[in-house]
Amino acid sequence: YPEQKKEIASRHRSLHRLMTRPDGKPRCVACMLCVTVCPSECIYVEAAEDPDPEIQKYPAKFIIDLSRCCFCGFCVEACPEDAIRMDTGNVEFAQYSQEDMIYDLDKLIG
Asked: Which of 66, 61, 59 shows the shortest CA–CA distance to 28?
């Protein structure tokens, strides 16, 4: 390492990502289960009413502070919509500032 990188196991928990619906909107329905179950209290979700009658709420804000996250995967297990995953395979995310460790909707979906 870093010249030769080891293969990452399929069950490895790496950076978070938010899944999207076919229309591009996040699958998250802002149920707050991930916020409730997180032992590090590093997830912040602000719910808003969705104009689509089939979807009650959506996350107006979804923020994960990776500097506080312990990568336990409880948020992934708790999500009833399979909206959050930790399967990006990205394990190199060291930053020089704490602000760069805060991931919002744009970073989590992108």
From this structure: 59
Which sign does the torsion angle of CA 14, 78, 20, 104 carry? negative
- Per-residue tokens: 35: 């916020």
17-109 carries CATH number 3.90.79.10: no
The 10 Å CB-count burial string (b at 16+, else e) for 79-105 is beeebbbbeeeeeeeeeeeeeebbbee
The pTM of the full predicted model, rounded to 2 decimals, is: 0.88
C-alpha to C-alpha distance for 85 and 21, rounded to whole angstroms? 14
pLDDT tens profile 65-83? 999 999 999 999 999 999 9
